[in-house]
Amino acid sequence: IPGVNQILQQQKEKPKLHEHEDENKRKHRELQESRKTLPIYRFREDLINAIREHQVLIIEGETGSGKTTQLTQYLYEEGFCEADIEEGDEDEDDDDNEINLPGVKKKTKKKMMIGCTQPRRVAAMSVAARVAEEMNVKLGREVGYSIRFEDCSSDRTVIKYMTDGMLLREFLGEPDLASYSVLIVDEAHERTLHTDILFGLVKDIARFRPKLKLLISSATLDADKFSQFFDDAPIFRIPGRRFPVDIYYTKAPEADYIDAAVVTVLQIHVTQPLGDILVFLTGQEEIESANEMLLERTRRLGSKIKELIVLPIYSTLPSDMQIKIFEPAPPGARKVILATNIAETSLTIDGIVFVIDPGFCKQKTYNARNGMEALTITPISKASANQRAGRAGRVAPGKCFRLYTAWAYQHELDENAIPEIQRTNLGNVVLLLKSLGINDLVNFDYMDPPPMETLRLAFEQLYALGALNHKVELTKLGRRMAEFPLDPMLSKTILASETYKCSSEILTIVSMLSVNNSIFFRPKDKMLLADTARQAFFAPGGDHLTLLNVYNQWKDTNYSTQWCFENFIQFRSMNRARQVRDQLEALMERVEIEIQSNPADTVGIRKSICAGFFYHTTKFSKNGMYKTVRHQQTVLIHPNSCLFDQIPRYVIYFELVLTTKEYMRQVIEIENEWLRETAPHFYKTKKLDDDESVKKMPKVLGKIKAELERNYS
Ligand code: ADP
Ligand code: MG
Predict the structure, then answer these.
(1) pTM for this one?
(2) Cα 108 vs. chain centroid, distance in angstroms?
C-alpha cells in the first residue's frame, strides 16, 4: 500500500540530527496540543470512570468529536492493555526486552489489545495512520490495522483498527476474542451487516468474560436503541460543538446532479469567501467525471479565479492520495473534496464550510424473491442528509446546498436508512455463523432481524453449493469454504478448482474479479484507443478468461508499470489483485489444496466457475436477451463484455448491474451438460431445456420455512 509505505518510509528517514529531532518533538507536541482541543478531551476522566464502572457503554458524539482517534488512546494510556490476572498473566515485570538464555524459561508478557471496528476499510487505515502518528509510533507496530487481504499489525500491536468484517472473522480463530481487553464497535449507526452480527456476538461473549469492556460508539440518534439491545447499558453523550448551518434547496429537481454539483462548486468558488467545499457523490465513476469537469472548467476560467484544489476520496483510492484530503489548502486557495458516503461520518476533514448534497448514495439492494443482488443509486435518508449538512458547521458557520427540493426532503426521503441486514444476501454470514457453531440462526440475537425470505434463501443457496447438508448442518466442504473471506460462490469456485487441477488460474480470476471493474482504464480523450487495447485481451470463452489473460501477460512482464500504461490497464488495480492473490494463495494451505496450473484447459477453468456460479446461469431467449434459468428474469450481456456480439446459448454471469437495463457483467460461456456435473444438488436433468430441470429443495428446508414463519408472525 503506497500510503502506508510512504509513512513507514518517512519514519525510517527520520534524521538523527538534533535539529531534526527538535523538529520532530515540536511536531509531536503540536499533535498532542491539538488532541486537547477535541470536544471529547474535556470528558476524558468521566469517560474512563464510566468505562471502569460499566461493562458495556454506549457512546454518542457528534462526528469529529474525537471518538475514533482518542478513545483507544485514552484507554491505552489508562492501562487497559495490561493483561488481566484473571485472564492468565501474572507477570508484573515491565521489562519489554526479553533475554533468551538457554535453560531459562522465556518470560513473555503479552499485552491485551484494544480493538476498534470500522465499517469501511479506508477509515480503518486512515484512522490507524493518524493514531500511530499521534502516538509517535510506526504504523503496524503498537498501532495497526487489519482489513480484508491486508493485515498491518504485529505481535506488539495494542491498538488495532479493523473492519467489522475482519473482527467477525477473528471469532473463527479465537471464539472468545481473548486477545482483546476492550472492543469498540464504532460507527454503530451505520448498521452494516457485519456490525449488526457483531452486536449479537459481542453481547454474548461479554456475558462470560466479565472483564471485557464493550463500547458501542455512534454518531447519531440511535443511542437509545443500542442501549436497549445491550440490556439497558448506560449512554455517555459527548456534546459536540456545532455552528449553525444554513440550508438551501433547489427550486426544481435537478436532471443531472453531477453537472449541478459542478456548477454549484464553481458558483461557491467565485461568490463566497474562502472555506473548503465537500461534495457527496455516489462512487468512483461519478467522482472521476466530476473531477474532470471541474478541472476542465477551471482551466477555461484560467487566472480569473483563485486556485481550486480538487481532491477525490473513495474506497479504492490508493492511500497516498487519501492522505492528501487532510492537508490544508495553501493560503488563498480553496479545497474541494469529492467524496462518497465515507465523508458522512467515518472521516472528518477539518476546514469544511460548504457542503453540496445531491441526495443520493450507492446501496446494495437484494431481491429475496429471486436472489438478485445489485448496486443501485438510491435517495439518502433524512438522517443522512442531516449528517451531511452537519459537516459544514464544524469550524465555523456553514452552508449546505441540497440539490433537491424542500418538498422532496420532507416527503420523499425516509427518516432512517434500512439496516443492511434487511437488504442483502446473507449467504456469507450464515456460513460464518454456522462455522462458529451457531446453529440456530432463526433465534439469533438480532437487533433487527433479517427478512425471513432472505434467511431461507441463504440456507437454500448454501445447500445448493454443498456447504450445508439436507439437515442444514455444515458440511466438510462448507467448513473449507468458510476459510476464505469471500462470497460463498467464489469460495466454492476456488474449492472446485481442485477437481479440475487449475487452482492457479482460478485464484487469479477470483482476485481479478475482486478488484471490482477497475482494471481497464478509459480516459475520455482516448476512448477508442483504450477500447482497442482492451479488445486485444479478449479470450474465447468469456470475460473471466480475458481477466486471466491480462494478469498473465502482466506477470510475464514482471509486473511492469510501463506495460500497464501502454495497455490502458490500471496499475494500482493490478497490484491490488496481486496482493489479493497472494493472500488467497496463503489460505490454500489451510484447505490443503495444491497450487496447480492448467492454463490450456479453459473447460476445466469454466467448469470450476460453473460449480460456484450455477445460480447465475442464463439462457439465450431472443433479440440479444437472456433469461435467468431460475426465475426467467430478462437480462442482457454488458456491452463491454467480450461475448457481447457472440450470443452463446448459455452464459453464467458474475454480477448484475442495474442501469437503464439489467446488465450481466463478466460473463462466460458454458455448456448445458456441465451444470449437472458441477451442481448435482441443484440440477436434476442433463438438459436445461425443460422448466422442471431445477431440483426441489429437501424437505428440511420446508421445515425451516415453517419455523421462520412462526417466528416472524
Ligand atoms: P469522531 O470519531 O468522533 O468522528 P475522529 O476521532 O475521527 O472523530 O476525529 C477527530 C479529529 O481527528 C478530527 O478533527 C479529524 O480532523 C482528525 N483526524 C482524524 N483522522 C485524521 C487524519 N488521517 N489526518 C488528519 N487528521 C485526522
Ligand atoms: Mg469516528
Answers:
(1) 0.86
(2) 35
